[in-house]
Input
Amino acid sequence: MYRFIFALAMGLVFCLSAAQAHAWGWKKATDPDDVMNFLNSKAPYQQKIKEAEITAVNKGSYIEFIIFYRSDNTAKTAGGWGWKKATDPDDVKDFLGGQGAYNHPVKEAEVVAVEKKTYTEYYVFYKRGMGNLAIPPKLIKKQ
Output
């Protein structure tokens, strides 16, 4: 499978195989909650997302998320996605692997990095391994 590649300073760069190009669409979102609504087929969105690749660009006053997706409206269920923001790559690694403060590993994830003035923000869009149920991080942290 081809992966989308992005360069923060240069903008978006991506490639698709010719056979898959017709099956992909894209959507712009200006916050991670809109990304979640789209991936989880919540109002106003109705199409069920089969596969997604996500990238982000710092636009100064906001972060622009671009979702490249393939839909599957024949699927019986949709969604199961959650998101987490981190400013440390070790936190991202622990979250994905269910280590450190996190009890459950991630089944599927898209990680995007956005360069801020003095640091980098990481947005992890994920599905958990328990029946595709997305568990908010606050419910899975070790006490």
